[in-house]
Amino acid sequence: MKRVLTGLMLVLCVAIAACGDIGTPTAEIAETPTPAASVTESPTPTASIAETPEPDATVAEAPATESSPVAQAPSNTVAAASVDIGGFTLDEIYDLDAAGCGMTLWRAEAQSAAPGDRLFVLVNGIEDNSMLMKLNGEVIRFRRTAQSGEEFYGQYEEQTFQNESGNATVKASIEKGSAMGEMESVSISSGTLTVTMAGATTNIPVIGDAGC
Description:
Helix content is 12%, strand content 37%. It has helices at 2-21, 90-95, and strands spanning 102-107, 120-125, 131-135, 138-152, 155-163, 168-179, 185-197, 200-211. Strands 2-1-8-7-6-5-4-3 form an eight-stranded antiparallel β-sheet, with no helix packed on it.
């Protein structure tokens, strides 16, 4: 019995020794190297945008005229109508109570007409506001607003008249002539009437006389 136990103990010791020689194997895990993530980057293509060339903005210019470098539209200016200068007969002058001392003028082209056939385009007495004319068919009374030059029988070599409403102006430029015989009067050898009314102007040559 003792021998059996001794043998078992020997076997046990051998087994223990054998177990002690068996080392715990080291778990060597071969690490598989992580392959480097090689990402092939596709080259970003350069955005090449073909620019369309801008055409030169050429503006066709109208041909210039000599008066201006820029062509201008033709002007449609309409000329103002002339003033119709009428005349008085001797009878009309008496009817208007305009006879007496002063000056009468008629158109130069009527110089050869007989006194009874003349039409007097301007009658001006020696009183204020006594000048009369027939314009555009209407008898208009004027007052003298300016005068210059030599005075004779209440008249002047340069006289300007205006009507009451102010829309008509008459300028009388006259040249005194010689005395007319035994009569107390002088001739008007030449002159010009410039009549402006409602924007229209008319000039006429005149002759006449002045006296009392």
